[in-house]
Design goal:
The chain is mainly beta and 107 residues long. The chain has a single domain, classed as LON domain-like (Archaeosine Trna-guanine Transglycosylase, Chain: A, domain 4), CATH 2.30.130.40. Helices cover 10% and strands 39% of the residues. The chain contains one helix and five strands, in the order E-E-H-E-E-E. A five-stranded mixed sheet has the order 1-3-4-5-2, with helices on one face.
């Protein structure tokens, strides 16, 4: 059974997350930090998806459509960003990315 939900997008450069394992992640980009903050204010779910290219700016065309719904775990905030743990829960396919200017915002 498929379910349609709206969650923040968590783009990954040079890495892929699978359902099951818990993965440590460093976050330094402002858009990704906003996605984490949005997830923390709700059910802690994010859509983790790989980028097609290792670019600083993320557009919806630069993201794959297959990803993983993941739950954000413990977070440590620092001067240069944050360190956190994410646990992949289930595979997911995006229907549409909502954008806010040049970045993929928390949806």
């Amino acid at each position: 059974m498929s379910e349609h939900i709206k969650v923040p997008v968590f783009p990954m450069r040079g890495a892929v997350v699978f359902p099951g394992p818990t993965v440590p992640v460093a976050v330094s980009r402002a858009g990704t930090s906003r996605a984490v903050d949005e997830a923390l204010s709700g059910d802690r779910l994010v859509f983790v998806v790989a980028q097609r290219e290792n670019a600083e700016q993320v557009s919806k065309e630069a993201l794959y459509s297959m990803g993983v719904l993941a739950r954000v775990g413990p977070i440590q905030r620092g001067i240069n960003g944050m360190q956190l743990l994410i646990t992949g829960e289930t595979r997911a396919v995006v229907l549409d990315y909502e954008t806010d200017g040049d970045v993929i915002p928390p949806a």
